[in-house]
Amino acid sequence: IFFLVRNKPEKQINPEQAFKDEFNSFKETFGQSFGSMSKEIAKDMTGALTKVDEKVSVFNQQVSELNKSQDNFSRILSGVKTYGTLAEFGLGSLIKDLIPSSQYIENARMKPDESSEAVEFAIKLQDVLLPIDSHWPIEKYKAIDDAYLSNDKEGQIEARKELASAFRNKAKVINTKYICPPKSTDFAILYVPTEGLFSELSSYRDPKSKELLLHELRSKYKVTVSGPNTLSALLQSYQLGFQTLKVQQHATQIYTDLKNISTRFDKHFS
Fold this sequence. Notes:
Layout: H1 2-7, H2 15-76, H3 80-98, E1 104-108, E2 119-125, E3 128-134, H4 138-149, H5 153-177, E4 188-191, H6 195-203, H7 213-221, E5 223-226, H8 228-245, H9 251-269
Parallel strand pairs: 3-4, 4-5
Antiparallel strand pairs: 1-2, 2-3
Helix pairs in contact: 3-8, 4-5, 8-9
């Protein structure tokens, strides 16, 4: 066996064949590895796409819910009564943030012997009540914006006149139903829920007398119009004034003293 093995001729290696064999081996190994890798990539891609699809579904659901919420909100703002409810809600939130619950009455009947109607809020100033009511005639306010967008100057004048008329009527109602000294102060506050509306009212002048609408409402009906910012400042100034001076039934006297503050805030925010 030894001699046979020793005397066996060496096998000639063909370089070309060796290369082919190595290449085939590499191709087979690479094919197996690539196949395995492809399966892993496909698996990862499928998982990723599934997650993306889930996120898209969630997003579509959220958009759908948002659209429903928008529709619901549009329905909420579908009538004058609901606008008033929304304005009252804003007024209530502001008062509850600024004043302790023991310092105000919600839906207070100012003249129980004459009427069952109640003012939205009445602030307790020692022994007297300060009536605060809200108003938001949004259709009339929107008419101004529509006329402005369509560049209808005559329409703007008419729409602003209608808005001013609505607030004159509201101020008259407040004066008749809710102002009743000595139970109440001899003035009331009319709250408007947006600074844009307050700015519009602050700048309006009567075409004939040229008197500012806010001054007219204050002098004729004893009603002070306030937006969110001015109401916050007025409530704090009134509260501070009445507490410091320990007023009992002299709210009228203090109101005269503090009226300058109201005028300054009106001028500032206008």
